[in-house]
Specification:
Elements (H helix, E strand, L loop, with lengths): L1 H10 L8 H8 L4 H21 L7 H20 L5 H14 L3
Helix pairs in contact: 1-5, 2-3, 3-4, 4-5
Protein name: Transposase
InterPro entries: Tet_transcr_reg_TetR-rel_C_sf (IPR036271)
């Protein structure tokens, strides 16, 4: 759950302007170097969740769901100015994890 707490610190700031990776992808859709960095980030986040949850032997769909929760929190924080978006995602992640055991 610490991942969502870190995101909460970032997303709840009044000057938050959205995900830098999404913003870069929108601004430079054909820039190979930027696309490479985005691809690295998109692989890093599910890998992070997989490593953190490794003792629980999580199914792949749980990792995918946690990434989507994170993506949703990032987007909601920016578009809706929802300062509690990461905490909402955390609560949902807790429900998902409770059903995995």
């Amino acid at each position: 759950m610490a991942v969502f707490e870190v995101f909460d610190e970032l997303l709840s700031k009044s000057h938050y302007r959205g995900c830098p990776f999404v913003n870069a992808a929108a601004e430079y859709p054909h820039h190979e170097g930027i696309r490479d960095v985005i691809a690295h980030h998109r692989a890093w986040l599910p890998d992070l969740f997989a490593r953190l949850l490794e003792p629980l032997d999580p199914p792949a769909n749980l990792i995918t769901a946690l990434v989507q929760l994170t993506d949703g929190a990032i987007t909601t924080a920016h578009l809706d100015r929802a300062e509690s978006a990461a905490l909402t995602a955390r609560a949902t992640a807790e429900l998902l994890l409770a059903h995995q055991s």
